[in-house]
Amino acid sequence: MSEFVKQSLGTLIQELKTDTEKAKVSFEATSVLEEGVRVNSNVRQFEFKFDEPQLLGGQDDAPNPVEYVLASLGACQAIVYRALASLKGIQLENVTVKTKGDLNLQGFLGIDSNVRPGYEKITFETIIVSDEDPEKLQRLAEQVDAICPVLDIVSRPVKVEGKLTIQRTPEVVG
């Protein structure tokens, strides 16, 4: 599998060096509120659910959005480890990323405007199983942190623009 990753990324890197316009991509998601605080989201051909724990008014049927942020960070880190290790010929037996986020509900619930509604702190631990030289793995870790897209998104401000569209229910003509 690492060889497939290496070949795929190697080909892509060569293409992007000759045609930099191909490097610009967009991703999209659509999320629809269902019963209670459940949300159904679609990304490409994939569908996944969100919910909140009962403490926050949900049925606890699925992870909540901030839990998906943590999972996304861990998944992105693991993917980037595989990608870079494959390109560099570094053997990894296993990569596990444990993430944790600290959130103060006073911000989310509007109780204290001085408390941010999102995570106040996110920490992660990467556990690598490998017989490679520890210094080589440390350099790999530094490179992963430097280019991991989700780590970049959560650790540095990113411009976000939103707009509201209001639709009226059409009147039934009878």
From TrEMBL:
SUPFAM superfamilies: OsmC-like (SSF82784)
Database matches in Pfam families: OsmC (PF02566)
Domain of life: Bacteria
Protein name per Swiss-Prot or TrEMBL: OsmC family protein
Source organism: Sphingobacterium faecale
Lineage: Bacteria, Pseudomonadati, Bacteroidota, Sphingobacteriia, Sphingobacteriales
